[in-house]
């Protein structure tokens, strides 16, 4: 199963229901949050006000299951391998297909995913500890509040990667160019300064060893928008199941440099 | 009249009603669009989908006249030197104070302004033709459609600066770091390629001479969101009058590098 078409077909048919890490390397993967239109303004504004944890890749028109910009061949009702359906902020059930749940006013938010993030570091020759160890990245719920927007509020969740000073500098340079997948770090060094008590006890994911001379480096984490959406208890919400991302139709390095990656391209899309 | 406090007071009292170009150098100035809440989702999504012409700096809560993030000491009802009030897409009147017009569901959008843009180029030693000539920058309405969102749709407006090849490269490098004030260029060279027939006949602003060896360079322009909002004919809308910007409380280079300028700063705002 190599081509994007084959992967898409396997996920759509329900044949592939496992996490998407490592699938379709070089293709942008995305977190999914689906909300009814009545919550969409507040959630959109929340993402705009908190771009580091919630970097928006695309927002669909109400009722449309097609992300026309980043995944025009995908159907959001079938093309995520595993969904979570929440009612009033509680997980109601998981599903492999949400066609039955879909509504005419469903608005889908695609948000940058850090799977693509680790690939950036590895490509630059920067070892990533949780990849070396074969575990999930350690994530911490900080006491730092995101900027609220309407009904949505909640704390910033961060991921942590231990790095040597030289790699810390290089990783900051590289990730700062990609605001669509969380951008540069939000903190470096003392975990207590951002309210983390014990690095060995992450709130999500797995702990990783920090070697002598290494500094913990913290990035805003894509778990934030789901955690915030859950805390805010909308009566209906669907997300991907953690790790089971939407694989878009968009190559990872679709616009070199990253800073303008949300810009529309005259030659590709709007040209004469 | 030098300090930000003095300028703010002069504008608020109605003493200063002229354009803000050159006022408070080093302070971010912003375009203003005020809409009732019922239009806010569509307009917010329009800005998110078209970040080059519509780089969002801040969106206020409904009814709040205070941009808490970028201009916490300002009042949007009094602190723009000259406003325009539109009804059904038509200019109804100008005003120096919109306190009487303000509503409980007014949502204000602050959008990056190119006054700050020219300062960036000049600071880097790049001559800017319309500044040299003492005229307004030439702006062109292209036939290139912005990505629509709900009721909002319309063409991309661009500004043009003629540059030598070396300055073109440097200006692209510099402006690309500042997506909040339109980012890098959208086109370089042949005006016909983006549907501009005659550079000597700009749709807004003034024509400027292009010297031998220079190449016209086009950037997305902050006139776009107002033009689009007008075309879409919301029944009520207030904007600043062209050139009469909101002067924020935010230093221009508030976050070095630009790419992360929308990021919240842990140390400044969310720190322990």
UniProtKB/TrEMBL annotation, chains A, B:
GO molecular function: lyase activity
Keyword Lyase: yes
Name of a matching Pfam family: D-Glu_cyclase
Superkingdom, taxonomy of origin: Bacteria
Regions that span the bilayer: none
Keyword set, alphabetical order: Lyase
Enzyme Commission number, as recorded: 4.2.1.-
Family: Belongs to the D-glutamate cyclase family.
Protein name per UniProt: Putative hydro-lyase JIR001_07340
Originating organism: Polycladomyces abyssicola
Gene this chain is encoded by: ycsI
């Amino acid at each position: 199963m190599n081509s994007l078409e084959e992967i898409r077909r396997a996920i759509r048919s329900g044949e592939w229901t496992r996490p998407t890490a490592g699938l379709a390397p070089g293709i942008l993967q995305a977190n999914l949050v689906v909300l009814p239109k009545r919550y969409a303004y507040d959630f959109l504004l929340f993402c705009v006000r908190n771009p580091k944890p919630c970097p928006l890749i695309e927002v669909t028109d109400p009722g449309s299951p097609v992300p026309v910009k980043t995944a025009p061949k995908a159907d959001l009702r079938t093309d995520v391998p595993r969904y979570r359906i929440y009612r009033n902020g509680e997980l109601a059930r998981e599903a492999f297909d949400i066609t039955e749940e879909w509504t005419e006013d469903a608005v889908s938010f695609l948000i940058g995913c850090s799977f693509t993030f680790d690939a950036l570091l590895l490509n630059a020759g920067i070892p990533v500890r949780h990849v070396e160890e074969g575990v999930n990245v350690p994530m911490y719920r900080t006491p730092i509040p995101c900027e609220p927007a309407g009904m949505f509020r909640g704390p910033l969740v961060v991921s942590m990667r231990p790095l040597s000073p030289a790699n810390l500098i290089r990783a900051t340079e590289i990730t700062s160019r990609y605001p669509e997948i969380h951008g540069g770090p939000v903190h470096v060094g003392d975990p207590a300064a951002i309210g983390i008590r014990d690095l060995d006890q992450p709130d999500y994911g797995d702990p990783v060893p920090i070697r002598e001379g290494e500094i913990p480096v913290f990035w805003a984490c894509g778990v934030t928008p789901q955690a915030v959406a859950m805390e805010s208890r909308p009566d209906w919400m669907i997300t991907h199941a953690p790790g089971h991302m939407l694989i878009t139709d968009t190559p990872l390095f679709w616009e070199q440099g990253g800073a303008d990656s949300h810009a529309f391209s005259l030659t590709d899309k709007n040209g004469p």
